[in-house]
Design a protein that fits this description.
Elements lengths: L2 E7 L4 H11 L5 E8 L5 H8 L4 E3 L8 H14 L4 E4 L8 H6 L4 E5 L11 H8 L3 E8 L9 E8 L6 H24 L3 E4 L2 E4 L16 E3 L7
Parallel strand pairs: 1-2, 1-4, 2-3, 4-5
Antiparallel strand pairs: 5-6, 6-7, 7-10, 8-9
Helix pairs in contact: 1-6, 5-6
């Protein structure tokens, strides 16, 4: 069984590419039914077309208000046959009706260790603050920005001379590993939500060696193939 997912993007779609790569190498039992972007020029749509995936440009500026856009977005996702939604750099908040339609089946990745530094430019905010540890968070989406139950987090050292670009590049290396892992857990039915906490059902898959990135911490640990 493979999980049909819609991927929402706004920019280059590097996390989308990581998902595609894992689907194509057989480590992620999912099928991308559509890639939808709120910016028609988003390179994520080009990535989708290169892999023969449905690419839908749905510019938010063409709609009179947020509610109208959310209704059209929900229709596009439903019409694609998606059973779950993965936000891969989608720079818009999802409205309550969209969240209700796919509650417990929407994932987002944020370039900071939530609940610290929510919102736009999390990596830059962390660098400016002078943290010594930074990272990324995959979480379920609810009606509040960057608020839903956490699935997996990865941490990397932050250096005194880091800025948004240098720290962001280090974080992104881990994003491309933990996001396919989280989607794998969702696709295989191993995630359950209990209040603010996410529980991961055990599996026999051996843990992966994460030492090739740099000194870091991933919790829960990555599994083989990620």
């Amino acid at each position: 069984m493979t999980l049909p997912i819609a991927v929402l993007v706004s920019g280059t779609g590097s996390n989308l590419q990581a998902l595609i790569d894992h689907i194509e190498d057989g480590t992620l039992p999912a099928r991308i039914t559509a890639v939808v972007a709120n910016k028609p020029e988003a390179y994520g749509l080009t990535r989708a077309r290169k892999h023969g995936l449905a690419a839908v440009g749905l510019p938010h500026a063409a709609f009179p208000d947020r509610a109208a856009y959310d209704a059209a977005l929900l229709a596009a996702v439903r019409d694609s046959g998606a059973e779950a939604v993965v936000l891969a750099g989608f720079m818009r908040l999802l409205g309550p009706e969209f969240v209700a339609a796919y509650r417990g089946r929407i994932l987002n990745i944020h370039p900071a260790l939530l609940p610290s530094f929510p919102g736009l430019h999390g990596q830059g905010a962390a660098a400016d603050y002078g943290v010594t540890i930074a990272g990324a968070t995959v979480h379920f989406v609810d009606e509040i920005m960057d608020n839903g139950p956490i699935v997996i987090q990865a941490a990397v050292p932050a250096r005194p001379d880091d800025d948004a670009k240098s720290l962001g590049e280090r974080i992104m290396t881990l994003e491309h590993r933990i996001y396919p892992q989280a989607v794998n857990w969702l696709a295989t039915g191993r995630l359950t939500i209990h209040g603010r906490k996410t529980r991961l059902a055990p599996a026999d898959t051996p843990l992966a060696d994460i030492g090739d990135v740099m000194p870091c911490l991933v919790n829960p640990p990555l599994e083989a193939g990620f």
